[in-house]
Amino acid sequence: MNTGEKKSYQKVTLETKLLVVDQILTGHISNNQASKKYDVPRTTIAYWLRKYSTLVQQNNGMSKNDEIKRLREKIEELEFQKDFQQDIIADMELITGVDMSKKSLPKTLAKEIELKKKARIKENGSMDVLGYPNKPSTKDSKHKRKKK
């Protein structure tokens, strides 16, 4: 073949196109492997992938902006859940005196829970096993002063 000539390819069926796209999207083969295996240029495969993703978006009836909005809402929901769960863990650690988060959670999450515990103690004082605040009473502090 001369260097100036283009290689000719056979027409590919829709079924083959969808098979190639599926194999690439599921990670079974790469674009380069598909190009060699099915004797199709990589640029053509990239075109199929773009067309397929557009088709999927149209079938789902969701624009990119709608998808971004949906994902932001999901992130907000998950952040709320995480915050709520951390509050529960912080309260349980204060009540029981056992640092569960340090042993079983990633450092970043354990640190967030530790900060929540410190904020709780600052607000309410510590808690006993039954969940009652352990605030020093004014009577105790006055009593200690008198002894001096």
Based on CA atoms alone, the radius of gyration comes out at 31 Å
Summarize the amount of helix as a percent range.
Answer: over 70%
Strand order of the largest sheet: 1-2
Assembly type of the chains comes to single chain
- Based on CA inertia axes, which overall geometry fits? elongated
Overall structural class, as computed from helix and strand content, comes to mainly alpha
| Separation of the first and last Cα atoms | 104 Å
Segments where pLDDT lies below 50 for 5+ residues?
A: 139-148
Strand content: under 5%
- Spell out the helices and strands N to C: HHHHHHEEH
Summarize the main sheet. Answer: 2 strands, antiparallel
Write out key terms for the chains shown.
148 residues, mainly alpha, two-stranded antiparallel sheet, 7 helices, disordered C terminus
In short:
The chain has helices spanning 14-25, 31-38, 42-60, 64-96, 100-104, 107-124, 138-147, and strands at residues 126-127, 133-134. The chain has 148 residues and is an all-alpha fold.
